[in-house]
Amino acid sequence: MPELPEVEIVKRSLLKTVNKAKIIDIKINNKNLRYKLSYKLLTQIINKKILKISRRSKYLIFHFQHFLLLIHLGMTGKFLITRKRDKLIIKTSFYYDLNILPKHNHIHFTLNNGLILIYNDVRRFGFFKLYKIKEIEEISFLKKLGPEPLSHNFNENYFHKFIKNKKKNIKNLLMDQSFVSGLGNIYVNEVLFISKIHPLRSCKKININEIKKLVFNIKKILKTSISKGGSSIKDFGNIEGQKGQFQQHFHVYGKENTICSRISCAGKIKKISISSRSSFYCTICQA
DNA sequence: TTCTTTGTTCCGGA
DNA sequence: GTCCGGAACAAAGA
Predict the structure, then answer these.
(1) At residue A217, what are phi and psi to the nearest 5 degrees?
(2) Total Cβ atoms within 10 A of residue A242
(3) Span A4-143: which CATH code?
(4) Residue whose C-alpha is closest to residue A247's, from A215, A216, A269
(5) From CA A174, how far away is CA A231, in angstroms rounded?
(6) What is the nearest nucleotide to A189, using C1' and CA?
């Protein structure tokens, strides 16, 4: 479940391996991703050089002359990099575990630097969209997004103004991409735990101190996560690689019925559903 | 067979 | 008109 830090790590990995390369061939094994892929459309970037790779929220953008390729990894999208003629995948730009089945390799980009970039996606909730435009601001998906959580635009003042007259609960607020873009269910659960705030608390009852705490913790968690290579996924690029330790760092996510990790708290982690999403919180410290 | 997982979108109710 | 939350949707694995 790639959220902002994971997508940032993927971007960095792609910058090292495929940036500035020219795409010389594209093969589509399965065009039924979230949105149907058009081979005809995609072929327009054949013989084009990848000029730049950027990230906005959880989206990746490949920049070409006259074209922008918008990519969302959905739940299980990942990039693999293999060397031409090798049968084995020698590098993975990002993964949660090593159970990568070739049957989920949906797109192959052959590059002029001897590498093949493969898009693998088990659930196929990811998507690729090609735009014949120059500015990322013109992309409709990106227009709706709120500020990047790590930018200066996301601060206490902005937070305070945004939640004025808002009735929704804090969990749904943090999940709202038009409020802040890039957080997903896992990081929201963790941020609320660290900030000691109950996920169902109304925005109206969040005080200024808690706003400060939330803004601080959101930035801190994301930065830490990125510095560690995306949460706990740090062995990308490693062929031998131990199994991804995806859940290693989490305090509450997926920890139903365990005891709170805070020293001197004996609370139990409870699981509830909020807007059809799993939410985990400590029954004692998240009041 | 049913449930779970995600981000986005849609829809009914307030 | 606007806001909010629940449900639907995509696919696959347990």
Answers:
(1) -70, -35
(2) 9
(3) 3.20.190.10
(4) A269
(5) 18
(6) B6
CATH of A156-234+248-282, one of 6.20.20.10, 3.40.50.1000, 3.40.50.2300, 1.10.8.50: 1.10.8.50
Strand C proximal residues, A:139-168, Cβ < 7 Å: 165-168
Count of C-beta atoms within a 10 Å radius of residue A124 = 16
Confirm whether any atom of chain B, the nucleic acid strand, is less than 7 Å from CB of A58. yes
Token look-up 């996606």 returns A121
Token digits of residue A29? 């094994």
| DSSP letter assigned to residue A243 | P
Looking only at Cα atoms, what is the longest distance across chain A?
61
pLDDT tens digits for range A160-198:
999 988 889 999 999 999 999 999 898 899 999 999 999
Determine whether the distance from the CB of A27 to the nearest atom of strand B is below 7 Å. no
For A66-77, how does the pLDDT look when each residue is reduced to its tens digit (9 = 90+)?
999 999 988 888
Establish whether the CB of A124 is closer than 7 Å to any nucleic acid atom in strand B.
no
Which token pair is A30?
A: 């399965």
pTM above 0.85, yes or no: yes
Token pair recorded at residue A188: 């929201």
The whole-angstrom separation of Cα A258 and Cα A45 is 50
